[in-house]
Model the fold of this input.
Amino acid sequence: MADTALDRLAAGKYLLITSYKKDGSAVATPVWVVRDGDALGAWTAADSWKVKRIRRRADVLVGPCDVRGNPSGKPLPAHAEIADAGTTERYRRLLARKYGLLGRLTLLGSRLRRGRDGTVGITVRLDG
Done:
């Protein structure tokens, strides 16, 4: 049974990552989520706006949500960073395991469209 915030977020199907634009306004995006030790891992297109926002400003809010990004819990402060190639590959394997056939098909389609370098992992560590 999940008993910590990290456990609960990692056990969920989607994670809402709220990152910030240059003007400080918040943008929330739902992503698939996996547990990576004491952190959470997500995966996205390398040229996505959330990647650009996280590179510029690492502080984010994270919380559980549904596929459409509707929050289902209180957001928690965290810090995010763009993962290196090895970590990104580990997240792909973890996502394929957690999300089964749909995960494997999504990863394959992305690799065919974008290549391996077209996606990156996002490592999220809760504050505190």
